[in-house]
Amino acid sequence: MATAPASSLRLTLRRVFRSPRADVFRSWTDPKELTRWWGPPGFEAPSADVDLRVGGRYRFAMRKLPDGKPFFVTGVYQEIVVGERLVFTWNWEGGPPFGSNTLVTIEFRDAAGGTELILTHERFESEQARDEHTKGWNACFESLEAL
Hints:
alpha+beta; Alpha-D-Glucose-1,6-Bisphosphate, Chain A, domain 4; eight-stranded antiparallel sheet; 3 helices
């Protein structure tokens, strides 16, 4: 399969949540909140470890219900502007098929009736990895919105 140039292998998603910006930001940075929504429907997040500082690491577990084996995503916070912006590396433990060494930027902006969240995920190795992450992020947004 041919791969697209690295600069084109990114995704950008926008969603408005009907909650104040501080609450939406907290849902991405508080381990207790993360375990309530992280992952697509049919999955749970049994744990979330967060060291919220530049250079700090995070590690989120997901598992398919009812009794799937946990798998993990981990990374390092590159930039943190409380209530406004998060930038972090993204690595699936065990590497492919999900892809690793990518970068996620999340912006939180005031919007009529809530908060606009803009997620940019870049540096994918293949179109397939980008497309799978697009599906995954949209499913996570559904779970977050339901919360």
